[in-house]
Design goal:
By secondary structure, the protein is α/β, with parallel strands linked by helices. It folds into two domains: about 210 residues, Rossmann fold; about 70 residues, 5' to 3' exonuclease, C-terminal subdomain (DNA polymerase, domain 1, Orthogonal Bundle). The chain is about 50% helix and about 10% strand. The strands form two sheets. It has a seven-stranded mixed β-sheet, sandwiched between helices. It has a two-stranded antiparallel ribbon with strand order 3-4. Strand 3 and strand 4 form a beta hairpin. The longest helix has 26 residues.
Length: about 375
């Protein structure tokens, strides 16, 4: 789920921290990819007639098709993908996982009713909501990536926290995920829409964490408390406090403790399960493997193993697999042009440059809002 409303809050108050990019802009970069989020995207997007792709045995193969095509595309563009997998869920997330299971059960009922009514639009909507990733599907993706010569990292807990660690220690340039809580975990750079940008013809949104802090005028600790107050996966929320209210309260009081001391409890009742201290600890001290212990190594693909796995075991068309292997092997012989910032020192922006960027971003944001209003009319 991430942080409720965080992207919009940043867009409204720290617009200069967001840049629009294309996939090709990341050549020469190592990107830490939230594997579970990516697999889920493929299960939703790679479909035929509204249904997930399956082989003759009835096994879903959408995720494998997506991984092969996207990973090869990254390599062709000179991008070095590192897929990071979730470990065990933190205890604090138990409540959120229970809610998701309830929603999945409700979606299954909705899907059943939609099929009985023959409502194709509702069938597609509820079918996507019932998608759940199994352990065997995740294991298959890990196996395939290794065969392709790509590194994988198995996080002890949350993948976003592990991605943030890799980026902080310069093992990767950015975290690729749709969950904005990667920023709360401290990734220096977050890229959204990364794995699906070309397929959906949308720009990649790149967030710079230091510029987020600067634009919101918050410290790291204040930003984490803001995210908790807005709504995260690790605790409940206070009814009546949305993103804007939470931001104004943190700006005024700095900490959740001081915010709670100032609240009118009749107007903003604090639920018994609002355990912000546990949530704060999850973000400040997540369970991760130190980056120094994570081996990021790209190796030669194993064509024979790929053929056996995809064609013999999973029923993929042989000609398509051969074409994919040919593209994959071609990336090994392609030299990647060096990035300019590897040769020149990038100087920090001056205060005057920052002010001009902020003014430009504010004007662009205002223009976009006006265009949106006109479109609605």
């Amino acid at each position: 789920m991430g942080i409720k409303g965080l992207t919009k809050l940043i867009s409204d108050n720290a617009a200069s921290s967001i840049k629009e990019k294309e996939l090709a802009n990341y050549f020469g970069r190592t990107i830490a990819i939230d594997a579970s989020m990516t697999i889920y995207q493929f299960m939703i997007a790679v479909r035929s007639g509204g249904e997930a792709l399956t082989n003759e045995a009835g096994e879903v193969t959408s995720h494998l098709q997506g991984v092969v095509s996207r990973a090869i595309r990254f390599l062709e563009l000179g991008i070095k993908p590192v897929f990071v997998f979730d470990g065990k869920p933190p205890k604090a997330k138990r409540g959120e996982l229970d809610k998701r299971n309830e929603l999945a059960a409700a979606a299954a009922e909705g899907l059943k009713d939609a099929k009985e009514a023959g409502d194709d639009e509702a069938i597609e909507k509820f079918a996507k909501r019932t998608v759940r990733i199994t352990k065997s599907q995740v294991d298959d993706v890990k196996k395939l990536l290794v065969m392709m010569g790509l590194p994988i990292v198995e996080a002890p807990c949350e993948a976003e926290a592990q991605c943030a660690e890799l980026c902080r220690e310069s093992k990767a340039f950015a975290t690729a995920t749709e969950d904005a809580d990667a920023l709360t975990f401290g990734t220096p750079v977050l890229v959204r829409h990364f794995t699906m940008s070309e397929a959906r013809k949308m720009a990649i949104m790149q967030f710079d964490l230091n510029e987020v802090y600067e634009g919101l005028k918050l410290t790291k600790e204040e930003f984490i408390d803001l995210c908790i107050l807005m709504g995260c996966d690790y605790t409940s929320t206070i009814r009546g406090i949305g993103p804007v209210k939470a931001y104004n309260l943190i700006k005024q009081y700095s900490t959740i403790e001081k915010v709670m001391a100032s609240l009118d409890k009749t107007k903003y009742p604090v639920p018994d399960d609002f355990d912000f201290q546990i949530a704060r600890d999850e973000f400040l001290n997540p369970e991760i493997t130190p980056a120094a212990e994570c081996e990021i190594k790209f190796s030669a693909p194993d064509p024979e193993a790929i053929r056996k796995f995809l064609v013999d075991e999973k029923g993929f068309a042989e000609n398509r697999v051969e074409a994919a292997i040919k593209r994959l092997e071609a990336t090994r012989n392609k030299s990647t042009q060096g990035r300019m910032d590897q040769f020149f020192k990038v100087l920090p922006k001056t205060d005057d440059q920052k002010r001009k960027l902020a003014v430009h971003a504010a004007k662009a944001n205002k223009k976009a809002k006006l265009a949106k209003k006109k479109k609605k009319k």
